[in-house]
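pls design
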């Protein structure tokens, strides 16, 4: 699974370079592909580490649950934190935020499809900044390798 994680990350980096170097490719569909590849690499990274350290996995595509399980099984996890999070503007209770997150579209789905099953676009504000994202993905490559080496996965 770790090899797939790296392949998805490499693909996201290469596509991000294309967007950065070619303005005509700087569209939301192109950015969405980069974000899908990147979020899927993060998902596979979490799963590879969890399975390697824990022997099994009970989470699906939910990056928030996978991150929580990753933090539980990997004691040095403060060195890695995924970027696919929600930010809430206004005042909400923890219960309201939890309910929203539970009902939300997961990043591996959000960036894979342009609209939901009924053809309705996903709600929210989504953005992509080519250079910043590219640098961040390259940092992830280093972190993935570091963690995999530390636990004898690579």
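designed seq:
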């Amino acid at each position: 699974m770790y090899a797939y994680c790296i392949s998805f990350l490499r693909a996201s980096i290469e596509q991000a370079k294309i967007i950065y170097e070619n303005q005509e490719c700087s569209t939301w569909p192109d950015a969405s592909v980069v974000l899908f590849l990147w979020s899927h690499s993060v998902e596979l990274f979490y799963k590879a580490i969890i399975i390697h350290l824990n022997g099994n996995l009970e989470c699906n595509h939910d990056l928030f649950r996978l991150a929580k399980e990753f933090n539980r099984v990997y004691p040095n996890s403060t060195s890695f934190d995924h970027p696919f999070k929600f930010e809430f503007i206004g005042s909400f209770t923890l219960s309201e935020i939890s309910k929203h997150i539970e009902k939300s579209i997961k990043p591996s789905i959000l960036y894979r499809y342009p609209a939901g099953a009924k053809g309705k676009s996903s709600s929210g504000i989504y953005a992509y900044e080519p250079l910043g994202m590219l640098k961040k993905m390259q940092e992830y490559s280093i972190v993935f390798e570091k963690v995999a080496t530390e636990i004898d996965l690579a």
